[in-house]
Amino acid sequence: MTLAAEREAESEVVYPDPTPPVLGGFQGLPARPGWFSQHLGTAVIGAVLGYLLGHWLGNVVGSGYTNVSNSGSNSIAVTGGLLVAVAGWLLGIGAVNYPLAKLVGMEPRPEYESTSWTRYLRYTADHKVVGLQYVIGVLGFFFTGGLLAMAIRTELLSPTSHVFGPGTYIAIVSEHGTVMMMMATSVVVGPLGNWLVPLMIGARRTAFPRVEAFSFWIFTAGYFVILSALFYGGFPTGWTGYAPLQTQAGVGMMSYLVGFAVIGLGMMAAGFNLAVTIINYRAPGMTWSRIPIFVWSILATCALLTLATPTLVAAGLFGILDHTAQTAFYVTEHGGSSFLWQNLFWFFGHPEVYIMALPGFGIVAELLPVFCRKPLFAYKVAAAGMVGVALLSFFVWQHHLFQSGINPDMRPLFMLTTELISIPTGFIYLVGLGTLYKAKIRLEVPMLFCLAVFFNFLIGGVTGVFLSDVPVNVTVHGSFFVLAHFHYTIMGGLIFAFFGGLYYWLPKMTGKTMNKQLGKAHFWTMFIFFNMTFFPMFLIGLLGQPRRVFEYAQNLQALNDFASVSAFLLGASFLIFIANFVWSIFIKPTPAPANPWNSLGLEWQTPTPVPYYNFERIPVVLSDPYHYSEENAPAVADLGEGELVTTGASSPASVAENPRPPAPGVETTR
Amino acid sequence: MTIDTGQPTSQEVTEPAQEEPRHIWRMVAIWAVLAVVLDLLFYFLVGPHVPPGDMTSAASENQDDFTILFLIALPVMIGVWVYMAYSIVIWRASRKGAPEPVGGPQARSNLGVQVGWIVTTTVIVLGLFVFGTVELVVNAGSGGGEGPNPIWTPTSASVLPVQVIAQQWKFTYRYPTFGGFESQQLVIPNGTTIAFHVTSLDVTHDFWAYQLSIKADANPQIDNVAYTTTRQAGSVTVRCDELCGLWHGAMFNYGSVVSKTAFNIWAKATERATAANTKLLPPFAWTYVPDANGADGGYYPDNVDPYSNSEVYGATPAKS
Predict the structure, then answer these.
(1) ipTM of the complex
(2) Chain A environment of B243 (Cβ under 8 Å)
(3) b or e along A143-174 (b: 16 or more beta carbons within 10 Å of the residue's beta carbon)?
C-alpha cells in the first residue's frame, strides 16, 4: 500500500484530544510552585502525621481487648498506623486532589509543572517523568534488597558461628525476599513500560495519567511499609508468608500484609493503565501485528498484574483480619485452613513469576533485531508465546504444593501444565536463535545483557523442568536448588534484561550517553559473579541444604563460602553501574544523539529530549519496526508534515515552544 | 517526514567471494559430538553419585529420574549454547569479511523451522509428563507427601507405620504398632516398606529425610502420608524444609536404618523403657489438636497448664 493510500485510508481517524491531563488542585486557587506546593516533603509529612493518627486510633480501638493488653503488642494500632500513613502519603503528594476537588464541586485545574528537576519529586501526569521516577524507585528497592542479600551471604560464611542471631537472620531473609519480589513486579513495567509504551504505540500519553502517577506513589509507599517491618522486629515467614507461622508472628507481620496489599494496589493500577493504553491508544495503523514485541510483553504482563494481584490483596486482607479482628481464615483449629493461604498466595504467586519473566523476554526480543540488523524472527510466534504463557500461568500454581499434603490426584495435572508452559516460554529461544542466524551482531552493552539473558534463563528454565517433575521435586523442593532456579530466572532473566534495557533506553530517557567502558565492566563482572554465586547453589541444594537456614552441614562450607565471596563481588559490580549512572548522567553528561543505536523503533524517531506530547502529530504507522537490512523496506511511520493543530495554548505546536502549559496566574520564566 | 529503514536501500548485496559454509551442519556436528561426550561422561561419572543416593526405593528411583532428565536437558542446553557461541563468533559485526545480513520476508519467519520447533518441544514436554506420571504412580508417590488419603500405595503386604510429629523446633517419632511409644530418634528397619505419617503441632514444617528421599509437609491437623522401601542400612539426616520460624535452621536430627532384627530389639526395648512416659502422652492419633483447654480430645492433659514454666508437654508436674 502506498503512503498516500494509507493516509487516505486513515483519514477518518479522530485524533485524541491533546488537552493536558487534568491533575488536581483547585481552579479558583492560585497555583503554588516551589516549596509551598505539594511534593515529596509534604508526602513525608502526611505519612508521619497519618501514622501517628492511625496508631493512636488503633490504640483507642484495640486497648479494650484482653489479647491486646496481655500481649503487649497491638497489631490493630500498627495496621491502623501503616494504613493511615499510606493515606497521608497519598494526600500529601496530591494524589487525591482531583477526586477531592470533584467531590466538593470545584473544577480541577490542568497540570502545572515547572521544567525544573523538582518535577521528579512531584505527582505528575507526564508518563516520561513517572517512568524516570520509577527508574530511581526500583533501583532504590533493588539495592536495598541487594544489601540484605549481602547480609545473608555474610551469615552463611560459616555453618556454625554466627554474625546475626536467628531472629535477625530470619528477619533479614524475609525482608530480602519480599523487597526483591515487590521490586521485581514493577521493575520493567514501571520504568520502561510507563516511559516507552506510549511512545512505542504512537500515543501522547497513557490512558489514565493520574492512575499512572498513583501507581508510582503507592509503590514507594509500599517500599516504606515493607521496610517498617525491620523496626517492628521483622517477620519470620519469608516472602511466602505461610500461615500458621504468619498467624503466630508478631506485629512485623502487619508490615508484610499491609505492604503487599499496598504494592498490590500499585501493581493493579499500573497494569490496568498500561493495558487500557495499549488497547485503546495505539496510533492509526498500529495494528496488532505491528506493535513492537516489547508492547506485547507488557500487555501480557499487565493482564497478569490486573487479574492475579486481587487474589494477593484479598489473601492479605484475610491475614490482616486474622491478626486484628481475631478471625480464623488461616487457623486450622478454629475451622480455617493453612492451605487456604498457600492456595491463594500461589494463585497470585505463580502468575507473578511470569510478571517477572515476560517483560524480560520483551526487552530481549525488542533489542535483538537492533543489534543484529535483522528482522525479528517469528514475531507472531513470540507474541503468541507471551499470551500463551500469561494464560497458562494461572493453571500451574499447585506445583508449589507438590509435597504439601493436598490432594495427590492433582499432581499429574499440575506437572503437565507446568511442563506445557515451557513450550511458549521456549518460543523466546526460537525467536532469539532465529534472529541471530546470519546476523550482523554488534556486541554493544545492551546486546551483551540480552545474550546473557539467553544464557542464564536457559539454566533457570531447564532446572524449572526438573522442579516440575514430581519425583525429582521430592529431592529439590524447598532446597537451595529452588533458590538457585528462581534467581536464575528472575535475576538472570529479568534483572539482566532490565539493565540491558536501561543501557539501551537511558540515552533516550535522559538525553545522556552512558559510558561504554564502564558499562562493559559492569556487564562482565555482573555476568561472571552472578553465575559464580548462584550456580554452586544448585549443588548446595542437591546436597541437602534447605532454604532459609542459618546453620548447615559442615561439608557444605566450601561451596557456601564460594557462593558468598562471589555474591560480594556481584554486589560490587553494581557499584560500577552506580558510578556509571552518576558520572554519565549527573557529573559529566554527554548529550546523546536522538537515535544512537540506529533503531527503527518509533520511540527513537522522536527528538531528544522527547517533547511533552511525544509527537507533534499523531504518527500514522505503516509497518512494524523490524525491517532491518531489507531492500525497499516500507517506512515505519509517517510522522506527519505540516500543521495539524495550530491554535491554542495546548496545541502541540505551542507545546514544542513551551513544554509545559502555564498555570493560570503564574508568570512563565521563559 | 518519512522515516527510512536506516539501511541504504540502494545498496547492492555483494555476492560472497567464496561458497557460504554450511553453518547449520557445522553446528549440528559440534553439538552432536559435545552432547554425546558430555552425556556419556555424566551418565558414567556423575550418575551413580546423583543425590539422594540409593538407600531406599524412592531414593534410587528419584536418582534415576534426575539422571534421565539431565541426560535429556544437557543436549538441549548444549544445542542452544553451541548455536549462540557459533553465531557470536561467526556473525559478529567486528569480524572481517562478515557478510551483510539479508532482511525481508525470508528472514522474518520460516514455517518449517517454526513448526519443527513447536513439534519438537511439545514431544519432549509430553514425553516428560508421561515419564514423570508413570514414575510417580509406579513408585507409590515417589516418597512425596500424598496427604491423608494416598492414592498411590505400595504393593507390599506389610507396611510399618511411623508417625513424624513436627513442632517448633524438633521432630519426634511415634510407633503405633509398638504401643505408640515416642522416640527422639528415627530408627527404621531395612528391607521394609515404611509409611511415614507426618503431622505438626503448631506451624507448617516439612519432614525431609534426605537419604530416604522422603519429603512431606507437616501441617497442623493433617496426616500427610509418604511411602518408601528401605534397601540399605545407614544413617539418615532429617531436616525441616519449610520455614517454621526462629530456629528453623537448627531443626534437624539424625536417624538410622538398621537390620530388621536390630529394629525389633530396639523397638521392643524402647517400648518397655518408655512405657511410663507413653501413658502420659496423648493417646495415639493421626493428628493432634494443640488445644490449651484440653477440649477436642486434647493434646495437653487436663491437669497440665500449658502456660506454666514448670509443666511441659509429656511430663507431670514435679512433686514438691
Answers:
(1) 0.87
(2) 170, 236-238, 240, 242, 245, 547-548
(3) bbbbebbbbbbebbbbbeeeebebebbbbbbb
